Every structure is written in structure tokens, then in C-alpha cells.
Amino acid sequence: MDDLKVLKEMRADAPEPGAERLRTARCRLTEAAEGRRMPYRLGFRLVMAGALAVAVAFAVVLVRGGGEAPGHLPPAGRLANPAVVLEQAALVAEKRPLGSAPRSDQWQYRKYLTVQSDGKVNTFEEWIRYDGTQSAGHGDTGRLEVRRLKPDPGDDDLSPEQYREKLLRLPTNPAELLAQVQGDRHWIDKPVEDPGGGEDPGARAFRVLSVYLEQQAVMPPKLEAAIYRALAKIPGARVELDVRDAAGRPGVGVYHESGRNPISRHYLILDPRTYRLLGNRMLHLRDEVLDGEILARAGSAHTTAELASGIVDQPGQTP
Q1: Nearest by Cα to 270 from 236, 223, 225
Q2: Whole-angstrom distance, CA of residue 85 vs CA of residue 92
Q3: CB distance 301 to 282 below 8 Å
Q4: Contact 282/303 with Cβ under 8 angstroms?
Q5: Each residue of 171-183: pLDDT tens digit?
Q6: Quick one: CA dihedral 243, 245, 251, 252, positive or negative?
Q7: Which pLDDT score, from 0 to 100, does residue 42 have?
Q8: Percent with pLDDT over 90 in the chain
């Protein structure tokens, strides 16, 4: 199978949605939501922690649920060669221009959509000041509210500014990058539910590289390319075609299969042309059980879609 040809054909017949179509769809999604808004600090944590928080949550559920017996795993869709697809992604990524560093008083903007495993839909729009001292969002009244963020020594959050500095220090050689994330004690000791590195090294590497890849607004192009090449080197890395994000957009789903009877499968969904991150998909491979109560059925999924992001001068502005 010619994987690159398949990728080019994935969306060849899909018309680009016009402004009116997008506006109508977003109105329907907004009306379907319950009107709840994510707390600003929690939203910032999800931006910065990403797959780490999800991995911790599922690990806790497995322990507290007593280990539900696995059912039939949902089969993967059309698989492609990870080495071929992720090398193409790297070639595209490394040609992106390196943007200038934002000022400390500028704001990082993000708009995203979530569809929970029970079908509930929510749209979020958030601003975080680049130095991490303030956040902003629309409150229950719909008015823009700005809040000051207090430093929390026990928290693992980084400001966008700190994350950019961290990413710029990472090696851009794929083998060196993979070795660093596999042996970094910071990631081995987190989550605290599993201290000492009991996590499969390949799963840990995929988890950490996923967290890095989700920092799109501050991602250096050469590091992004190195991440794709490092992902291809992880044993168990898989690429599945036609994986949909929360907005229904088809993309390239990259995931890790550890072979250890996982309770979920976490996809990074990439645009098949630009290889930008479209969103995430957490597929339940068996029932999620907490204290005897089934929270999510096998085969259901929690999905996200990145709708917009960028650097702006003031909260309330969009790129």
C-alpha cells in the first residue's frame, strides 16, 4: 500500500466548509452544550498537562474499579506504515517558519471542542497570559473575565513562556530526544500513583512526546520534526487513517500499542496535509468502572478538536 498516496486522497473530495456552514455547525454544538465552562486554572492545566492527566485518570480508575475483565477490543481501522507517515510529517514540520518569541505581556489563545463519551458537547475559549500570571475566559454570564493566577509550588503547570524555554532546550536528534524522555526522572516519578518507573518505557515516551506536541503555539519546527521521528522509533507505535476528531474532521491517528491489556487507546490526530494537531481521541477499549459504576462503555470515546490558537495582545482578541 502506498501510504502517502492514501493520505493525499483522504480529503481530496471533501469541500472546504464555508463561513456560514461553520457558523451554523458551531451554533448547533453550542446549543447542545450544557452551558458549563471549565475553570480557568483547570483549562490551563489541560493545555499544559494534556495526555499526562488523562493517563493518570485512567490509571486511577483501573485501580479503584478493581480491574474490569476486558471485552472485545475495537479493531483498528486502516493502518499505515508509521515510519513512512511520520517521516513525511517531519519533512513538512521542519519547513515551518520559526516565529519570534512573544512578549511576556501577550496572551496565548486557544479555542477547542470536546465531545465526551456520553455524547455531551462543549466548546471552550481560553486566554493565558504568556508569563502565566493571568488567565481569561467567558464566565456563566457570557462576559469576559480575567483572573490572576497565583504560583503553586506543588503544581506541575508551566507558563507558555516557560514551556517555550523548555522545548528549546530539548535535543532535536530523534534518538537523543527519545532517550531523554525515556530516562527523565521527572516523568518516571509522575504520576505519583506509579512511582519508580513501572510504566512501559514506550508508553511513557509516547505520553511525554504527546504532551510536548500539544504545545503548538510555542513549538519550534525542528523539535516538532524530531518528535515525529522519535515517535516512529517507539516499539508499538501505530498509525491509523481516517480517525475523526470532535469536529468530525478526518485525520491521521497516531497511537501506542503496548500489548499490556490497555484500558484505553489515545490517538493524536494529525491533519493529513499539514500534519498540524487536529485533536485527540481517547477510545475506551473496555468498560470504565469506578466503585462498581460503569462510567463509559467499551467502544465509546472522549474526543477533542483544536479549532483555533495563536498569540494575541489582549484577552478577548482572536488571531
Answers
A1: 225
A2: 11
A3: yes
A4: yes
A5: 999 999 999 888 7
A6: negative
A7: 38
A8: 47
Instruction: Tell me which residue of 298, 122, 133, 304 sits closest to 210, measured CA to CA.
Output: 304
pLDDT at 80 over 80: yes
Could you tell me the pLDDT band of residue 290, with boundaries at 50, 70 and 90?
Answer: confident
Q: Which three cell numbers stand for residue 224?
A: 516538532
Q: DSSP string covering the chain, please?
A: --HHHHHHHTTTTPPPPPHHHHHHHHHHHHHHS------HHHHHHHHHHTHHHHHHHHHHHHHHHT-PPP-PPPPP-SEE-HHHHHHHHHHHHTTS--PPPPPTTSEEEEEEEEE-TTS-EEEEEEEEETTSSEEEEE-TTS-EEEEEPPP-TT-----HHHHHHHHHHS--SHHHHHHHHHH-HHHHT-STTSTTT-S-HHHHHHHHHHHHHT-GGG--HHHHHHHHHHHHHSTTEEEEEEEE-TT--EEEEEEE--SS--SEEEEEEE-TTT--EEEEEEEESS-EEETTEEEE-TT-EEEEEEEEEEEESSTT---
* Burial (CB count <10 Å: 0-12, 13-18, 19+), residue 259: exposed
Give the position of cell 482578541: 317
Choose among 312, 317, 318: nearest CA to 108: 312
Is residue 184 pLDDT above 60, yes or no? yes
This prediction has a pTM of 0.75
Candidates 110, 113, 139; CA nearest to 317 is 110
Secondary structure of 54-112 as H, E, C letters: HHHHHHHHHHHHCCCCCCCCCCCCCEECHHHHHHHHHHHHCCCCCCCCCCCCCEEEEEE
Q: Which three cell numbers stand for residue 39?
A: 475553570
Which residue matches cell numbers 512526546? 209
| pLDDT (average), residues 117-140 | 93
| Cβ 243 vs Cβ 281: under 8 Å | yes
Amino acid at 303: T
- Amino acid symbol at 319: P
